[in-house]
Amino acid sequence: MGTAGKVIKCKAAVLWEQNKPFSIEEIEVAPPKAKEVRIKILATGICRTDDHVIKGAMVSKFPVIVGHEATGVVESIGEGVTTVKPGDKVIPLFLPQCRECNACRNPDGNLCIRSDVTGRGVLADGTTRFTCRGRPVHHFMNTSTFTEYTVLDESSVAKIEAAAPPEKVCLIGCGFSTGYGAAVKTAKVTPGSTCVVFGLGGVGLSVIMGCKSAGASRIIGIDLNKDKFEKAMAVGATECLSPKDCTKPIGEVLSEMTGNTVNYSFEVIGRLETMVDALASCHMNYGTSVVVGAPPSAKMLTYDPMLLFTGRTWKGCVFGGWKSRDDVPKLVTDFLAKKFDLDQLITHVLPFKDINKGFELLYSGQSIRTVLTF
């Protein structure tokens, strides 16, 4: 492309400070350095994790360009890049896969050492590729997709099939894969089992889809917002309930409902109280509970250790346990083979300039996933 090696001027949604709306600005995007890739973003999803930065629940430096769930096409590559070339369709990866660190080399590991979970806001060489109004702008989780162009380390890019529709498969970059993998890969849900899912947003619905795909016979969805029940049933929940309608603790209610047979429970909200509720609701001896929702930073959890002593398993899960560069292309291929349906998760598609409206839909509970297109 004629832009290779040059600074690109384009539109981006910049967050200048916490608790302020996005500002659509003209920014400069520097060319990729060695082992880096510059991408033109085609579609990007709005995820609750992006909102954590706005609200201060997640550590970040400002100004920053957030966004981490997207599909794009490679515009140019830096020296030494071998896994993608200009014109390739790709998904940016907030969870990189360097293939060299001990987590990448362990068959059960996926939390690559290059992950930016502490909010450093720079690429591997310690600098940023974004400038706005003469100021450097920080990156977010190695991705930064709320912009027409972004630069990523090669380890944060997965090449996918050219036929994949960008406004759908962008969900494989975060929300869908996180939930689906929590069920099929982290919990390893077994056929005929009983599952309980706390939180019926986009990721919670993806957990339900994973439980169904794994052959669970009973899938109970739990949310305070009953408007979410219809969609949960449509993607595979067998029943839903709201804790507001329960006179007893939710764990007791579930035990009575199921005859004390909950094999797997999933917390897909990120609230400390529901993490303990989810743990208590699975079988005291052979139950497994998975923490899927990102917990609030700098908060401590108190729970009765007897919950674990009796035999329960309590697991965490990042990006559904997938090894990102290896597994994202396979998930896209599975989508194209109609092994799962992403349409059920996408409630709104808006032009990129309407990003603030997209976040309003998130806050009001009207959207599951809003996808912004360029």
SSE topology:
Blueprint: E1 8-14, E2 23-29, E3 36-45, H1 48-55, E4 70-77, E5 89-92, H2 102-105, E6 130-132, E7 135-137, E8 149-153, E9 157-159, H3 166-169, H4 175-187, E10 194-198, H5 202-213, E11 218-222, H6 229-235, E12 239-241, H7 250-258, E13 264-267, H8 272-281, E14 288-291, H9 306-309, E15 313-316, H10 324-336, E16 346-351, H11 355-364, E17 369-373
Helix pairs in contact: 4-5, 7-8
The oligomeric state of the chains shown is single chain
Cα Rg: 20 Å
How many β-strands, per DSSP? 17
- Rounded mean pLDDT score: 95
Strand content: 15-25%
* N to C succession of SSEs: EEEHEEHEEEEHHEHEHEHEHEHEHEHE
Large-scale geometry: globular
* Tally of separate helices: 11
Distance between the termini: 18 Å
Please bin the fraction of helical residues: 25-40%
Unreliable spans are none
Tell me the major beta sheet: 7 strands, mixed
**Category by helix and strand content:** alpha/beta
Short description:
With 374 residues, this protein is α/β, with parallel strands linked by helices. It has helices spanning 48-55, 102-105, 166-169, 175-187, 202-213, 229-235, 250-258, 272-281, 306-309, 324-336, 355-364; strands at residues 8-14, 23-29, 36-45, 70-77, 89-92, 130-132, 135-137, 149-153, 157-159, 194-198, 218-222, 239-241, 264-267, 288-291, 313-316, 346-351, 369-373. One of its GO terms (molecular function) is omega-hydroxydecanoate dehydrogenase activity.
